Amino acid sequence: MVVAQKNNVNTDRWPISPQIKGLKSSILREILKTSSQPGVISFAGGLPAPELFPLDDIKLAMDQAMTKYGGDTTQYSLTLGIPMLRELLAQRASARHTETAVENIIVTAGGQQALELVGRTFVTPGQYVLCEYPTYVGALQVFNAYQAKYAPVAMDHDGMIIDEVEEKIKKYRPTVIYTVSNFQNPTGITLSLERRHALIELATRYEIPIVDDNPYGDIRFAGDPIPTLKSIGGDAVIAVRTFSKTMAPGFRVGWLNGPKDIIPYFERAKQAIDLHTNTLNQYIIHEYVAAGKLEPHIELIKSDYVVKRDLMMRSLNEFFPEGCTWTNPEGGLFLWVELPRHLSAKSLLPQAIERKVAYVYGEPFFPDGSGDHTLRLNFSNASHENIVEGIKRLGQLFTENL
């Protein structure tokens, strides 16, 4: 018998914690709800192209995993991750000039959970996080949950301005330096090699861990590769990685590569959250990567995204009005637009939605809520036709409001 839920309970008096009450709903998620309406050309999400997901190879990897490992694939597993996947991740890192042992790796439920483990481990209320300005909104959500304060550092085309980094370290004594060093979300900017060395020197001197959130590093489709912060800085750097952008985001599998003596703290934090990452998905990813499928797939992604980036850049040049500027990313999923300062990207978004095109306005990416004249555009998840038409519509909207 089904019993109807009673509606006369006064939940207003339930003791919701101040930390949860203080959290804001993700503005980005709210925009994505709107932009998913039928007929809307969306540049809003940070989404990989679904038509490129390697579905046949994923099916094969799942069949192989279940045939080889049977019930182990659907059993509880270790909090640190299944050993064979951790070994594979350590081997791949070492092959890329980042000396890594299995003990340096913990598998997480995507890169977002990796950031959650960082927040739980390092941030207490009132402590400062040094970050780029603007920075990844999902990281701000994590650190906000632990009532962090921010020491934001301005960026130019080479990433965080190092002189300002040292000023902020001296002034705020941050507990963590957080960066998206490759094809940054939201700007698409990459931290230069010179500044990577300088950032590591500062972090080492002041004994502050660098958390390098690097979901896009493999998706370089232009320019010369730059050594990762982890490969340069070793134990000074905690690397956050994920398969979400290179394989498929629905797996929710990522990992942290950090100092051996820090991994047990992450392990305890994760045990309290979800015990372990999805077992079957770990086995599937192991089979897929071990079979040599990942690298060719990344090449396919890169060949698709570079065409889309170039098309969006040409469309911006053709349709956007004078006074607008934008970044030219050498990889990743995004580029960043600055409108003339008297235009409000937030205020103009409803009009854009009326014209059936969506973007993310810049305000959520700034810890202080500034950046009203900025916006982020995603080029990876739109067709060629929609890129041209969507940018044309936005260009008309911004021109009309100059």
Low-confidence parts lasting 5 or more residues at pLDDT below 50?
A: none
Percent of residues in helices: 40-55%
Order of helices and strands: HHEHHEHEHEEHEHEHEEHHHEEHEEEH
Strand order of the largest sheet: 2-9-8-7-6-3-4-5
Instruction: Tell me the β content.
Output: 5-15%
Give me the CATH superfamily of the largest domain: Type I PLP-dependent aspartate aminotransferase-like (Major domain)
- The whole-angstrom Rg is 22 Å
**How many independent structural domains?**
2
Strand count, sense and barrel status of the largest sheet are:
8 strands, mixed
Count the strands? 14
CATH class of the largest domain: Alpha Beta
What is the second-level CATH architecture of the largest domain? 3-Layer(aba) Sandwich
pLDDT averaged residue by residue: 95
The CATH topology of the largest domain is Aspartate Aminotransferase, domain 2
Shape: globular
Q: Structural class, please? A: alpha/beta
Distance between the termini: 62 Å
Number of helices: 14
List keywords for this structure.
402 residues; Aspartate Aminotransferase, domain 2; alpha/beta; Aspartate Aminotransferase, domain 1; 8-stranded mixed β-sheet; 14 helices
Describe this structure in words.
With 402 residues, the protein is an alpha/beta fold. Helices cover 42% and strands 14% of the residues. The strands form three sheets. It has an eight-stranded mixed sheet with strand order 2-9-8-7-6-3-4-5, with helices on both faces. Strands 10-11-14-13 form a four-stranded antiparallel sheet. Strands 1-12 form a two-stranded parallel sheet. Helix 5 (110-122) runs parallel beside helix 6. It is globular. 46% of the residues are buried. The model has no long low-confidence stretch (mean pLDDT 95).
